[in-house]
């Protein structure tokens, strides 16, 4: 039986990482994207990362600490490209913060984020987050993208506690 198609209406994190990087891996590097841990693909091409835990979500203050399960591995050029991003932790204070990824070296900042838009509907808050490559994360992409390079926007949907 096929798995249900995930949609943006599902709570979780929707993110395409960086579209140009993904096109390069798929077309030029003859690579692949391999998901694990419940990560899926949305009809618009973004990845869906399920929420693992909500430690903090304050809509008014725009503070959050949320973890996500699973990851995506990008492979190409016969193994010359091999990057896995996953087990994310989003930390926001007053609408600004970081998305961290786990790597073999432990948790590290991946992108700096800033709330660009917010809405809520029926107890679910949606945050649209602009993202830029964080300081110290360029080596994940073999220094191709310098610090502060824009990455794709993130869309977070999380249930508000009553």
Summary?
The chain has 162 residues and is mainly β. It has one domain (12-159). The chain contains 1 helix and 13 strands, in the order E-H-E-E-E-E-E-E-E-E-E-E-E-E.
What does this structure look like?
By secondary structure, the chain is mostly beta strands. It has one domain. The chain is 6% helix and 55% strand. The protein has one helix and 13 strands, in the order βαββββββββββββ. It has one helix spanning 19-28; strands at residues 12-15, 32-36, 40-41, 47-49, 51-58, 63-68, 71-76, 81-86, 89-93, 96-103, 106-121, 124-133, 150-159. A ten-stranded antiparallel β-sheet has the order 3-4-1-13-12-11-10-9-6-5, with no helix packed on it. Strand 5 (51-58) and strand 6 (63-68) form a beta hairpin. It is globular, with a radius of gyration of 15 Å.
Give the arrangement of secondary structure elements.
Layout: E1 12-15, H1 19-28, E2 32-36, E3 40-41, E4 47-49, E5 51-58, E6 63-68, E7 71-76, E8 81-86, E9 89-93, E10 96-103, E11 106-121, E12 124-133, E13 150-159
Antiparallel strand pairs: 1-4, 1-13, 2-7, 3-4, 5-6, 6-9, 7-8, 9-10, 10-11, 11-12, 12-13
Descriptors:
162 residues, mainly beta, 10-stranded antiparallel sheet, 1 helix, 55% strand
Count of folded domains: 1
SSE order in H/E notation? Answer: EHEEEEEEEEEEEE
Main sheet: strand order: 3-4-1-13-12-11-10-9-6-5
Query: Unreliable segments (pLDDT under 50, ≥5 consecutive)?
Result: 1-7
Tally the helices: what do you get? 1
Radius of gyration of CA atoms, rounded to a whole number: 15 Å
Structural class: mainly beta
The major beta sheet can be summarized as: 10 strands, antiparallel
Anisotropy-based shape: globular
Strand portion: over 45%
The portion of residues assigned to helices is under 10%
User: Whole-number average pLDDT?
Assistant: 89
Report how far apart the termini are: 35 Å
């Amino acid at each position: 039986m096929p798995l249900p198609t995930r949609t943006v209406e599902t709570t979780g994190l929707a993110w395409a990482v960086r579209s140009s990087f993904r096109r390069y891996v798929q077309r030029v590097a003859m690579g692949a994207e391999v998901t694990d841990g419940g990560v899926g693909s949305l009809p618009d091409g973004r990845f869906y990362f399920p929420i693992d835990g909500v430690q903090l979500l304050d809509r008014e203050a725009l503070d959050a600490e949320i973890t996500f399960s699973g990851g995506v591995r990008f492979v190409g050029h016969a193994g010359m490209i091999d990057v896995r991003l996953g087990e994310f932790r989003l930390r926001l204070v007053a609408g600004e913060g970081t998305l961290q990824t786990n790597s073999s070296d432990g948790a590290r900042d991946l992108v700096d984020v800033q709330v660009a838009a917010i809405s809520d509907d029926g107890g679910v808050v949606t945050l649209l987050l602009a993202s830029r490559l964080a300081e110290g994360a360029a080596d994940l992409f073999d220094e191709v993208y310098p610090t502060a390079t824009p990455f794709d926007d993130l869309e977070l949907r999380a249930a508000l506690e009553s």
